Amino acid sequence: MSRNVYVFAEQRDGNIQKVAYELVGKARELADTLEEKVYAVLVGQNMNEKAGSLIEAGADGVVLVQDEMLAEYTTEAYAKAVVAVIKEKDPEIFLIGATAIGRDLAPRVSARIHTGLTADCTSLEIGDFPLVAAPGKESEQKHNQLLMTRPAFGGNIMATILCADFRPQMATVRPGVMQALESCDKVGTVEKFDVAFDAADMNVEICEVVKTNKKSVDITEAKILVSGGRGLGSAEGFGQLKDLADALGGEVSASRAAVDNGWIDKDRQVGQTGKTVRPDLYVACGISGAIQHAAGMEESEFIVAINREESAPIFGICDLGIVGDLNKIVPKLTEALKKN
Ligand code: FAD
Q1: Ligand 1 near 229 CB (within 6 A)
Q2: Which contacts (CB < 8 Å, 24+ apart) does range 135-138 have?
Q3: Does a cis peptide bond (omega within 30 degrees of 0) precede residue 168?
């Protein structure tokens, strides 16, 4: 019988990614509801010392698959490792981060074990669900199902998806959507899980790993974000946002309209097709607050909106709204902050 909640603990260069701890946090909540356990699946090489951090993050145990073939991520070898763990452990639920690696790995794994996969979930809950039967047949109530909710139809509706007949119930979740737990001094097990690899498992050859030398900023880590939209009018408009962000000790982010206009890099985009952020302070300047933008920032601790249109939807989700021209307000705010 399928049991327990498993999480793929993504690592890069031997560093466990933040999304893995976030998923362990969510898995803990789901497993507690089901009265089951949480296991993190850590795949790589020389990861022994890092496994304990997943237990501190809330896992009951870590399944550690190590091999020299797993030193760098490759689809075939990692899929083989994860599929082997799933076949042996028969999880009820399996969660993967919707990162570049997770988006590559998850569909491969779900296809091999013949189960469904719901991508980019924004909410995961355990609940009951009535399955409406075909005419003439009785409807059925499914208990303790994973209710996987994600935006659909261009973000205009939220769809809750169920995988009633196959196990595990698989979902991917983007970084920043779930919250990691405070680290605890929990006791757990680390199980070494052997998978026999051979040359055929490496159907690609990694000739060289080229790291980008562009200093990229991870806006999901920032405590303060000053975000700009189409209302800035140009790439130059971001200069005044940078000044404000510097005065606040934060970073600059943007709406998709600003990114699509080529005013700022895509890695700073907030929203449904950008990043999900949860800073202590989010200052939205010249952003209307479309549902797809709000999806990526509405969980921020404190939201300030500056917009010249009183009817802009952003005023419906902010904690403090300033109606006016950002070109006048932003420099005044920066000046006042610098004085203090
Ligand atoms: P606008 O909606 O044009 O708003 C500009 C605002 O600036 C207006 O409210 C205006 O009143 C104000 N303004 C203008 N001049 C000034 C001034 N001088 N001072 C003060 N205020 C001023 N969007 C995202 O942001 N992130 C996403 O990830 C994302 N994903 C999407 C996915 C899908 C499938 C789809 C269909 C859309 C997505 N969008 C996303 C686009 C989204 O629907 C909006 O089009 C976009 O967020 C609008 O960006 P904006 O608020 O900067 O521009």
Answers
A1: yes
A2: none
A3: yes
Q: Ligand 1: distance of its center to the CA of 156 in Å? A: 15
Sign of CA dihedral 265, 266, 268, 269: positive
Residue among 122, 158, 225, 230 to mutate when testing ligand 1 (max atoms within 8 A of CB): 230
H or E, element range at 282: strand 281-285
What DSSP designation does 204 have? S
Torsion of CA 57, 78, 148, 87, to 10 degrees: -100
Q: What confidence score (pLDDT) does residue 301 get? A: 96
Q: How many CB atoms lie under 10 A from the CB of residue 115?
A: 17
75: CB partners within 8 A, 6+ apart: 104, 105, 108, 204
Q: State how far the Cα of 93 lies from the Cα of 215, in Å rounded to an integer.
A: 37
pTM of the full structure: 0.79
Q: What is the DSSP letter of 262?
A: T
Nearest-CA neighbor of 30 among 58, 51, 9?
A: 58
Q: Output the pLDDT for position 214.
A: 64
Question: CB–CB of 65/42 below 8 Å?
Answer: yes
Split the chain (340 residues) into runs of 10 and give each run's mean pLDDT.
Answer: 95 95 97 97 96 96 96 95 98 97 97 97 92 77 92 84 95 93 88 92 86 78 96 95 96 97 95 92 98 93 97 97 97 93
Residue whose C-alpha is closest to residue 30's, from 182, 164, 158, 171: 171
Q: Which of 281, 299, 283, 300 is nearest to 224 (CA)?
A: 281
Candidates 178, 318, 327, 302; CA nearest to 248 is: 302
Distance (Å) from CA 315 to ligand 1 centroid: 13
Beta strand 302-307 with 281-285: parallel, antiparallel or unpaired?
Answer: parallel
In the DSSP assignment, the letter for residue 311 is T
